[in-house]
From TrEMBL:
Organism of origin: Sulfurimonas autotrophica (strain ATCC BAA-671 / DSM 16294 / JCM 11897 / OK10)
SUPFAM superfamilies according to UniProt: Carbohydrate phosphatase
Enzyme's top EC category: hydrolase
Binding site residues for substrate: E67, I89, D90, G91, T92, D212
Catalytic activity: adenosine 3',5'-bisphosphate + H2O = AMP + phosphate
Cofactors required: Mg(2+)
Name of the protein in its database record: 3'(2'),5'-bisphosphate nucleotidase CysQ
Family membership noted in the UniProt record: Belongs to the inositol monophosphatase superfamily. CysQ family.
Keyword match Iron-sulfur: no
Length: 251
């Protein structure tokens, strides 16, 4: 099944969604709030329509899980071999603040592992893509782009821009290195920074959903890194009964 998926077609879908998002980004837009108080804009809805309809057209037999769709009951989806995991805009808060740090995220999950991922940041024109066994790329360049030769001397840490918890900050402050350079970033770009080598570690001791990480996690893994559960340092898994991710560390 994976060999039949054309990564470049998924890249084009992400670009089309990104173009639609940018048209809305550049004008005034309305903000609604979902039941969980998270913001929703017309850009989320439009991007979701483009991605889901395009994926259904190309691969009608692969189910889709998206942040903006009604979720399928676990009894049904636990039988899924392959499925798409989509976040049309990760970083809606960054979108609303107009700081450019939001992403379109499309992942293919096999059983509980992300095996393909596309992350597109349309405002800054960064395209990340990966397919299991074929490597990870940023704008056509193979990842990682750089490697820290002396982590004991200095660690580059990336943390959340809008959701930095006290626990995460304490973890960062206690890292065993002489010097810590900490940067803030929005959305799944944090995982991508670890994949490129711009950051050595991304700790997230706080809530995220599976669709927030799936696409970028595929890129992280193909770049030779991993997203570990904080509690047991096992790789995080997908399509759980509860779609909330545990606290995790990407390195």
């Amino acid at each position: 099944m994976l060999k039949d998926i054309d990564l470049e077609k998924i890249v084009l879908i992400a670009k089309e969604a990104g173009d639609a998002i940018m048209k809305i980004y550049e004008k005034d837009f309305t903000i609604e709030y979902k039941d969980d108080k998270s913001p929703l804009t017309e850009a989320d809805t439009k991007a979701n329509e483009i991605i889901c309809s395009s994926l259904q057209k190309l691969y009608p037999n692969i189910p889709i899980m998206s942040e903006e769709n009604k979720q399928t009951e676990y009894e049904i989806r636990k039988e899924w071999q392959y499925y798409w995991c989509v976040d049309p805009i990760d970083g809606t808060k960054e979108f609303i603040k107009k700081n450019g740090e939001f992403t379109v995220n499309i992942a293919l999950i096999y059983k509980d592992i992300p095996v393909l991922g596309v992350v597109y940041a349309p405002a800054i024109d960064e395209m990340y893509k990966a397919k299991k066994g074929e490597g990870a790329y940023k704008n056509g360049k193979k990842l990682p782009l750089k490697t820290n030769q002396h982590p004991e001397k200095k660690l580059h840490v990336v943390a959340s821009k809008s959701h930095l918890s006290k626990e995460t900050q304490e973890f960062i402050d206690n890292l065993k290195t002489k010097e810590i350079e900490q940067v803030s970033k929005g959305s799944s770009l944090k995982l991508c920074m670890v994949a490129t080598g711009e950051a050595d570690i991304y700790p997230r001791l706080g809530p995220t959903m599976e669709w927030d990480t799936a696409a970028a996690d595929a890129i992280v893994r193909e770049a030779g890194k991993m997203t570990f559960q904080f509690e047991n340092m096992q790789p995080i898994v997908y399509n759980k009964e509860n779609l909330l991710n545990p606290s995790f560390i990407v390195k």
